[in-house]
Amino acid sequence: MAEQLSLEEKDRKLGELLRGMGRVLIAFSGGVDSTFLLKRAHQELGDNVLAVTAASETFPTREFDAAVDLAGKLGVKLKTTEVSELTNANFVANNPDRCYHCKTGLYTHLKQLASDWGYPYILDGSNVDDLGDYRPGLAAKTEQGVRSPLQEAGLTKSEIRELSRRLELPTWNKPSFACLSSRIPYGTKIEKWKIDQLDQAEHFLLQLGLY
What we know:
Strand content: 5-15%
Structural class: alpha/beta
Order of helices and strands: HEHEHEHHEHHHH
Shape: globular
Oligomer: single chain
Distance between the termini: 40 Å
Number of helices: 9
Radius of gyration: 17 Å
Strand order of the largest sheet: 3-2-1-4
Number of strands: 4
């Protein structure tokens, strides 16, 4: 039976993993996991960390703006880019492997940016709990060589929230968020007007204080 590491030991392991990479590009959405990863990477590697936030049709503008603002408050280097899922027929068809096609497009794009800018590693915020869900996007991550240090260090979502709280990150208790296309049932075509309708509805609910 594998030895169970304490939260502090997992955090130290994360630091060791990050230092071993030396120079990293992080896919940064502004959520709980990618924010914690970005903070820890910046602590360990300083200016050898670059956050990249991608705008897309299925990522609400409010979330994009919040991620950009947060990166500024954390004092990390940030570049923004754009991807378009709706130009991918396999994504628009909205079959159960939808996320695979979305993530393949994103990671392929980030891989090119990392190559252009001289970052040997691309990181995402996947954690141990993600391994127990149906996440076809994980296959795309593996295929494109993206690493998940939080997963490698054995950190769960609740542990990441606790470590984020200790670091006084504003995202420590932020609700989990999935792209707007996840609200549309499999087999129902994803179209821009549907995404916009969902975005407006959720924005309205947020204004009512519902999270």
